[in-house]
Amino acid sequence: MSTKVGLVTGASRGIGKAIAVHLARAGFDVAVSARTVVEGEEREHSSTIKKSDTRPLPGSLESTAALIAEEGRRALAVPADLTERATLVAAVEQVLGEWGRIDLLVNNGRYIGPGHMDVFLDTPIELFEKHLEANVIGPLVLTKLVLPGMLERGEGIIVNVTTGAVHMDPRALPGSGGWGLAYPLSKAALHKVVGSLHVELSGRGIRAYNVDPGFVATERMALDKGLGFDAAAAAPPDVVGAAVAWLATDPDAIGLAGTTLQAQQLTADKGLVPGFAAPVRNPG
Fold first, then answer.
1. C-alpha 31 chain-centroid distance
2. How far apart are CA 134 and CA 111, in angstroms?
3. Which member of 183, 209, 215, 229 is catalytic?
């Protein structure tokens, strides 16, 4: 039997990197996608139109691929930008061309840039469009591309990383412990995809899940002290990585297809990460 292949977006750092490493640990060969290929690249990652921030963020496809290799699995870096559809097509074609299959797609990447922490009146419509392109259309493009092979084999898994912000309103202004409208608006649209995929394709071997990571400490959060969140109080990304790997490999996960899983609760309940025993409450 061929080794299973996973494709994880937003895998240069944070939650995506953790998911990729845990999938490798679970026996997957893993293709990783993001914009940052090597350490030290400068890209705009400010959350607000009020300032620019191009300081290099820790993490890269190169470093994530090295961690996958340390787990004894094959790694393939396929750079792509979720706002540029042609790069997504090229990324999937590269994975299929070199490895011949994609058994698991994890839509973890999201729009990074201004508009995420801006109030509605300050947010240009084009930034709403960028959020929707990266957080909704990009994942739909990738899902369309991987499904034919999955359906031909009669099995496949789609995991969409969602957020608790789709269910609750912020209790503070963006950048002061709350968030702007563009982020939950786009994530709410992505959140609805799994239910439809389950109804349409579960009978043909396709499993789809939403995974809510909860409040998680990332490299970007640690670098930007001005978002109004306490990174020290957040859960480690490994908690989400372990939850996704469990969904991809444990027979008990089959009955949960079509639902939204709280990654931290799942990891705590199953004892997937030693020492992690309780979910961290989402701020807001």
1. 13
2. 5
3. 183
Q: Using one digit for the tens of pLDDT, what is the confidence trace for 217-269?
A: 887 776 665 555 566 678 999 999 999 999 999 999 999 999 999 999 999 99
Q: Determine the topology of domain 5-270 in CATH.
A: Rossmann fold (3.40.50)
CA angle 57, 175, 220 (to 5 degrees): 15
pLDDT tens across 91-102, in order?
A: 999 999 999 999
> What's the confidence (pLDDT) of residue 86?
98
111 is catalytic: no
Distance CA 66, CA 63 (A): 5
The percent of the chain in helix, strand and coil, each rounded to the nearest 5, is 45, 15, 40
Sheet holding 156-161, edge to edge: 75-77, 29-33, 5-9, 104-107, 156-161, 206-212, 260-262
User: Residue ranges per domain, the chain?
Assistant: 5-270
Residue bearing tokens 């990585």? 241
Please tell me the predicted confidence (pLDDT) of residue 223.
65
Number of Cβ within 10 Å of residue 48's Cβ equals: 22
pLDDT computed for residue 284 by the predictor: 44
Nearest to 68 by CA among 32, 115, 117, 40: 32
Residue 94 CA to residue 217 CA, distance in Å, equals 31
Does the pLDDT value for residue 283 go beyond 90? no
